[in-house]
Amino acid sequence: MQPAEWHLGLTTTCSPALLSVLCILVTQLWLGSSCPSVCICNASEADCSGRGLVSLPSLGLLPPSTHTLLLSNNRLSSLAPASFANLTALEHLDLSNNYLDKLPAGVFAQLPNLTALSLRNNSLTVLETELLQGLLQLRTLDLSLNGLSVVPVGLLDEQAGLRWLSLAGNRLHALERAAFEPLANLQHLELGNNPWECDCNLRDFKHWMEWLLYRGGYVDAVECTLPKDLRGRDIRGVPVEMFNYCLQLEDENGAGAGGTKGGSPPCNRATAAPPSEGIVTAGEAGLPDCVKQRYRPVSVRRAIGTVVIAGVVCGIVCIMMVAAAAYGCIYASLMAKYQRELKKRQPLMGDAEAETDPDDKQISSVA
Ligand SMILES: *[C@@H]1O[C@H](CO)[C@@H](O)[C@H](O)[C@H]1NC(C)=O
Ligand SMILES: *[C@@H]1O[C@H](CO)[C@@H](O)[C@H](O)[C@H]1NC(C)=O
Ligand SMILES: *[C@@H]1O[C@H](CO)[C@@H](O)[C@H](O)[C@H]1NC(C)=O
Ligand SMILES: *[C@@H]1O[C@H](CO)[C@@H](O)[C@H](O)[C@H]1NC(C)=O
């Protein structure tokens, strides 16, 4: 109802100044009192998109049957905690292309039937862990094109029903596996256009991602930015064995930290990471998951098996080669010896012949 909104809304919908009065009249006539004057409503949908709104219109007037509320392409930069109170039937909420930089923890708490939420292309840098609490029907969540650097552990804890999630185009360099484990029914995950650091911090998440793919889910390209030798590589194509050194790091660090912590499971992966400093992971909340995270997936176990078998085969081949070489040497030396003896004997036989020949001649001559 603010004059500023009025003005902005009207200039976008009815640009010629003369038409603006007509515009007001028409909207008033058609929509009655239950629709905010800047929006276009029918029984199930309220379209307040592209009106240049800097604050929310009074949504308490919306018909209680409203399923869809479009607030995209406005200039909203903040929302009051009770902004969406009483819209219990709402299923689709579109807040994309605004300037929201943070959201109060309980802002969506009164929307138990919400199935699709879009916060695409805002300025969000942090999300409250409680932001999605109570949204048990959520199927689609779009958080793309924001400034998020962390997905807090706990944010997605109630989202076992989520099917589609986009985190593309943020500032994520690592993700906690524990934050994503509740997503038992996820089918589509977008992670592209983030500055991923493909080091030990991403190893456990990679395992989770492989499990998602194994279930038939979809993940888009996850291109590494760091380390340098993996830049541009898709982490899905980086063999899991390349992260084996993490286990070593973890074990070394675990042995060191276990004594100081006294009883708590040794798990300092976040701090054990190689020189990639500046990674702030929400690790504290995930400590109980340490034991889970130490589980070695099939591929690692298979790799160890392969190494053992290869070692045994190599050993057998080596032994056979040594035996063959030894046999060759012995045979060669025996032959050499035999040859030498043969040579030694041959001249003797020649002498004997030479000695016998004259004898024969003598004998023959005598004869
Ligand atoms: C409400 O409007 C939207 C688009 O403006 C349309 O798709 C929908 O069918 C309409 N619903 C009703 C009940 O008129
Ligand atoms: C929401 O509903 C409650 C009662 O159910 C009412 O007291 C309150 O004023 C309503 N809030 C809004 C914003 O309409
Ligand atoms: C929420 O959804 C359920 C099941 O789809 C429906 O029975 C219920 O009426 C909805 N709540 C509101 C307030 O419309
Ligand atoms: C993001 O939002 C801004 C402002 O609302 C808009 O100008 C820009 O085109 C949007 N970008 C995309 C990719 O939607």
From TrEMBL:
A Pfam family reported for this protein in Swiss-Prot or TrEMBL: LRR_8
Domain LRRCT, residue spans: 194-247
UniProt xrefs under PROSITE patterns: LRR (PS51450)
TM segment ranges: 303-336
Biological processes, Gene Ontology terms: potassium ion transmembrane transport
Signal sequence coordinates: 1-34
Region of interest (Disordered), ranges: 348-367
Bilayer disposition of the protein: Single-pass membrane protein
GO CC annotation: plasma membrane
InterPro entries given in the database record: Cys-rich_flank_reg_C, Leu-rich_rpt, Leu-rich_rpt_typical-subtyp, LRR_dom_sf
Subcellular location: Cell membrane
Keywords: Cell membrane, Disulfide bond, Ion channel, Ion transport, Leucine-rich repeat, Membrane, Repeat, Signal, Transmembrane, Transmembrane helix, Transport
Domain of life: Eukaryota
Matching PANTHER family: IG(IMMUNOGLOBULIN) AND LRR(LEUCINE RICH REPEAT) DOMAINS, RE50361P
Protein name: Leucine-rich repeat and transmembrane domain-containing protein 2
Organism: Chanos chanos (Milkfish)
